[in-house]
Amino acid sequence: MHLKSLDHMGIQVKTTDKRNLSAKHLVDAIKTKHEEQRRQRSLRQKPPRHQFEWTFEDTGVVLDMLRFTVLYTMNSGAHSSTEKERIIEFFETFIPRFFDLPDDAVNQLLNDIERESGDEDGEEAAPAETANGRSRRHGKKSDLLRGVLDPGRNGSKSRTQKEDSAASGSKETTPDIGSANEEEMADAPDDSAVPEVSNERWLPTIPRATVFAGDSTALDPEHELKADGYFPRQWYNFFCNQTIFVFFSIFHTLYKRLADVKASKESVLQEHRRERVDKPSKLLGMTHDEMNFFEDDNPDSFWPRTVELIEDLLTAEIDEGYYQSVLRRYHLHKGWTLYTIGDLLRTLCRQALVCSVDSKEKTPELIQHFLHNRQQEETSYQTEISERKFAEKCIKDGEMFVICWVSPLPPRVDDART
């Protein structure tokens, strides 16, 4: 009861997350930030070009999140077998390629997860039998027979109708509207007949670029600007829609909470030492609620044990009450942020399912286009403009966002799970 009285943030965390992590609130927040920056630019100020800055410094936490999502999907009853396959395939293909995760680390992390067998899907995909006991798979013969007996079935035409259609297209018939348009198009004036405009008002020679300060890396050997040339890059622009933006917003929120809990080693060490101290109530036999979740004082073992605790919650091996009690006792200041990890993973899986299914905004096309562009080590400004135009064509009237991923050099992988 004493620890619960101190856990004042955990009481309202579900209500706060439901309000602050909704799609409407996330979009309104970045719109407000964008409007403030636009106002600052009008006042001749220099605001940053981006609205939010997200950091994913600890690659080990990203790998743990990938494992959590797969575990939650496999043990969740809210999705069918087909939907689970789509969600897991999205996480296993998109997340490692976006965050530059090594393949061997991803395979080692996900190999021990039990996957559902495809027997149920095979039984569902088996052809259903008709009333007379015949399978629908072999119903093509009856369809061919009906097509011969009934020529109008399935859009097929009889020989008489084909002859009538051929006769209707003879030269003696009246030409249709399309042919009349073709004849009119023949009389259209040619574009080459437009008189050329004199360019005497332009300079006789093209001025060349001149460098007054700094280096001349933007010029080619002929002192021309390399505006349309290719250049190496460390950043990758992902022009996306609202679905992908909400997905990454919640993904970063969960990453930040897990990283804060992982960094709170001092809190765990202090509480662990407090448990080992002899108390009068323990000596008198008045208290028997010793938890002793962390067995030793090694700070390197705190995070792997916390990961095991989260996995036990996702696989339903422990109840939510015990899960919150451990976080409350050892991570009193940061543990309340992970009380709703199930809700965050549920939202991520829902967004991943939307990203893997064809929709009006063509989210899978945007992702595949970005992954294809991600393979190119060089880019140009014309390429970036083409990427934006492709996204505008897919999104149409919806809101468009850009996520600029800056890859670290060299990539660093945290081996905290070993």
Describe this structure in words.
It contains 18 helices and four strands. It is mainly alpha-helical and 418 residues long. Among the domains are: 41 residues, no CATH class; 145 residues, no CATH class; 60 residues, no CATH class. The strands form two sheets. It has a two-stranded antiparallel sheet. The chain starts with a helix and ends in a 12-residue tail after the last strand.
Layout of strands and helices, then pairs:
Blueprint: H1 2-6, H2 13-20, H3 23-42, H4 59-75, H5 81-98, H6 103-110, H7 119-125, H8 140-149, H9 159-168, H10 177-186, E1 231-232, E2 235-240, H11 242-263, H12 265-276, H13 280-283, H14 302-314, H15 320-330, H16 341-355, H17 363-374, E3 378-379, H18 381-395, E4 401-406
Antiparallel strand pairs: 1-3, 2-4
